Amino acid sequence: MSHRQTADSVLEAVEASGRHYRDGLPMIASENILSPMVRMACNSDLHGRYAEGLPRKRYYQGCEDFDTIEEIGIASAKRVFNCRFANIQSTSGTNSNMGALKALSKPGDSITAVSTADGGHISHARMGAVGLRGLDLVTYPWDVNRMEPDIDAAAALIRETEPSIALFGQSVFLFPTPLGELSDAAHEVGAKVMFDAAHVIGLVAGGQFQDPLHEGADVMTGSSHKTFPGPQGGFVLSDSEDEKLHRRLNSGIFPGVCSSYHLHHVAGKVVALSEFEAFGDEYAAHIVSNAKALGAALAAEGFDVLAEERGYTASHQVVTRHGEVDSGAGRDAAASLEQAGIITNMNMLPGDTKALTPSGLRLGTPELTRVGMGTDEMQDVARFFARALLEGEDPQSVRHDVADFKGEFQTVGYCFEPGSAYPGLD
């Protein structure tokens, strides 16, 4: 294969991936799609430029226009998240966590967090950012029925451990964290409270989940590409009046974990913030109503949907169990669904110990909502799940019907200029 053929093969695979998502049901909870204006900002000359430092305090010339962009974005983020401090430079949610951990701790300190087996993110684990910072991890006791930390036992653990950071937030995130009670315990022992809102930050901003920065969190981190519908990137936020903390958070990102920080994505993030100010409340509300409807519809079809007694979910996620603990049933279900045109991810559930052979699926509604689906369509989605997994129908037959169904939902909404959700594939 020639060098040109190699490049052509890459572009062909890019187009094939776009068709895969265009014709299927993308339901991975950590994904979203971009509006036309955000795409325009991302696909700009900024993609190759550098702007180390803070606005008007740069190490390079040529940054005046980008300074304007970042200043607009910081002001918008403060309004969207109702806070005093915002850093919009980080390149991902994990990158945000790394910067915040650097600002709030030193190697050898203790940290409390949700275990990965109970839904915590890998950046909260020894294998991820927590381990990279050299922190001593202690995980919370978990209430399986409520899918949240056991409030009394977790508060007692915090008081006993006396960590530098009490970290909350999850990757499997169905319900708000009982943050008021737990942050009180953390502050009693001098711990900083950090809330990883990567998955739910759009719901937080849209008033549909909880308000961590006003429930006791000193710092909130998050992703800009999940329930918040921007380009891949992150946020670091605080409502603290402590300017020393603000400086530490800024320096945790630069020079802590970023040099230049993907200026085209920052510009796209700023456009997305403006669109969220206009449409975010409505979008967040529809994400949650769709997730609730999906959970109920899947249960009605006969699936084992977690947290039935709490109404299945209060977020953008629905979690289903498909077999015994560590059986690989979740992995097998995800593979079967993809053959039928439904894109999901396997996920560990409480009790699972093996990430590659878990028993569950984690499902999300942000992208389906963004292309115009509502609660009625969630009934149709649940029916496709049942045909693919419970009724043993030929997956190609289901895939054909999924593509026909999805054909009616190809326009990205909740933005200034609605347009093709999957550009270049019309």
SSE topology sketch:
Layout: H1 3-23, E1 25-26, H2 36-42, E2 53-54, E3 57-58, H3 64-80, E4 85-87, H4 93-104, E5 110-113, H5 129-132, E6 136-139, E7 142-143, E8 148-149, H6 151-161, E9 165-168, H7 179-188, E10 192-196, H8 201-205, E11 219-223, E12 234-238, H9 243-253, H10 263-301, E13 304-305, E14 317-321, H11 329-339, E15 342-343, E16 345-347, E17 360-364, H12 366-370, H13 375-389, H14 395-406, E18 411-412, E19 419-420
Parallel strand pairs: 1-15, 5-6, 5-9, 9-10, 10-11
Antiparallel strand pairs: 2-3, 4-12, 7-8, 11-12, 13-14, 14-17, 16-17, 18-19
Helix pairs in contact: 2-10, 3-10, 4-9, 6-7, 10-13
Structure in words:
- The protein has 426 residues and is α/β, with parallel strands linked by helices.
- The chain has two domains: 26-34 and 279-419, Alpha-Beta Complex (Aspartate Aminotransferase, domain 1), CATH 3.90.1150.10; 38-273, Aspartate Aminotransferase, domain 2 (3-Layer(aba) Sandwich), CATH 3.40.640.
- The chain contains 14 helices and 19 strands.
- It has helices at 3-23, 36-42, 64-80, 93-104, 129-132, 151-161, 179-188, 201-205, 243-253, 263-301, 329-339, 366-370, 375-389, 395-406, and strands spanning 25-26, 53-54, 57-58, 85-87, 110-113, 136-139, 142-143, 148-149, 165-168, 192-196, 219-223, 234-238, 304-305, 317-321, 342-343, 345-347, 360-364, 411-412, 419-420.
- The strands form six sheets. A seven-stranded mixed sheet has the order 4-12-11-10-9-5-6, sandwiched between helices. A four-stranded antiparallel sheet has the order 13-14-17-16. The protein has a two-stranded parallel ribbon with strand order 1-15.
- Strand 9 (165-168), helix 7 (179-188) and strand 10 form a beta-alpha-beta unit.
- Helix 3 packs parallel to helix 10.
- It starts with a helix and ends in a 6-residue tail after the last strand.
- The model has no long low-confidence stretch (mean pLDDT 97).
